[in-house]
Recover the amino acids of this structure.
């Protein structure tokens, strides 16, 4: 019985050690941040580089970081009131005596040497000055066109456009013909803040809404003799025309004159055409007479006396060409 005591003691210790190891391994697996570490065979939580703590839940700050924290390894994020790469420079000395922030309009205060006298303010866009106290006039360059009013803002401006224009800079002319204000077939032409209508025949008014009475229309356009000043017949010469604009008489009637162009063609040939025909006829006659004279002259010259070197055969042939017959040889008789 006594000889088995060491063996039993060793077995008991082994069982207790195994139990303690299993319990510790379960505890490590439950508490250790396995994203930043792992459990070894002894149940100890071993952290990855950049992480620390019993269960690897704390990140390691950048070496030298004093008044800062981290959310990821090797960071140094300064706490309130501290600045610098290692969060070792206090910012409280840039406050004025009454504990008010010196930079205005959202500017950021920077103390380069740690003394209040050397502070500088980094201003937001739209402000200038030592303490960011001056608002920049964004209307200084007059960005609004066509007589628009510029309204300055913080790092921005807006344009109050006059009637007839729109857009950020009031450069877009509003099309006043979009609503088709011209009636009765009139054509609309856009203007600056206005429109103009070109009315069809028989209508007038700003929007061609007023019809011209038919009797007045016929009275002015027809051939009635009641208005001889507007119905005078045009002079019928070549290329002449007459045009009188629209007018209104004292009775309120519209006087409309019709443009009439009359071209009358003269009978016969013009003077230039007659001269050309005469010259051409004279030249043709002279050419014909000259040709006939040359032909007669050459024929007469060819039918003259035979030359000294002409043979009897040549003389006979030439005689035939000139007279058409050959003379019979005269027979001589010897007595």
């Amino acid at each position: 019985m006594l000889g088995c005591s060491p063996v039993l003691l060793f077995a008991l210790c082994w069982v207790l050690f195994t139990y303690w190891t299993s319990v510790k391994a379960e505890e490590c697996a439950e508490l250790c941040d396995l994203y930043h570490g792992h459990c070894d065979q002894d149940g100890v939580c071993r952290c990855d580089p950049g992480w620390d703590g019993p269960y690897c839940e704390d990140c390691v700050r950048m070496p030298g970081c004093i008044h800062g924290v981290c959310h990821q390894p090797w960071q140094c994020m300064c706490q309130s009131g501290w600045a610098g790469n290692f969060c070792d420079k206090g910012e409280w000395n840039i406050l004025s005596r009454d504990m008010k922030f010196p930079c205005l309009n959202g500017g950021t205060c920077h103390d380069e040497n740690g003394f209040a006298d050397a502070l500088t303010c980094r201003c937001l866009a739209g402000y200038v000055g030592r303490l960011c106290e001056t608002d920049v006039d964004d209307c200084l360059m007059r960005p609004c066109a066509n007589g628009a009013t510029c309204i300055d803002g913080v790092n921005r401006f807006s344009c109050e456009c006059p009637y007839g224009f729109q857009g950020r800079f009031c450069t877009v002319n509003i099309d006043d013909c979009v609503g088709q204000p011209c009636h009765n077939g009139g054509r609309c032409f856009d203007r600056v803040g206005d429109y103009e209508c070109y009315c069809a025949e028989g209508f007038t008014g700003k929007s061609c809404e007023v019809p011209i009475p038919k009797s007045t229309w016929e009275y002015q356009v027809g051939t009635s003799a009641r208005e001889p000043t507007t119905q005078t017949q045009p002079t019928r010469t070549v290329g002449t025309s007459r045009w009188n604009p629209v007018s209104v008489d004292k009775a309120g009637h519209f006087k409309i004159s019709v443009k009439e162009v009359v071209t009358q063609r003269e009978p016969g040939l013009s003077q230039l055409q007659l001269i050309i025909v005469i010259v051409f006829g004279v030249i043709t006659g002279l050419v014909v007479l000259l040709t006939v004279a040359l032909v007669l002259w050459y024929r007469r010259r060819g039918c003259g006396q035979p030359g000294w070197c002409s043979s009897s055969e040549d003389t006979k042939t030439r005689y035939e060409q000139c007279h058409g017959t050959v003379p019979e040889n005269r027979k001589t008789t010897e007595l």
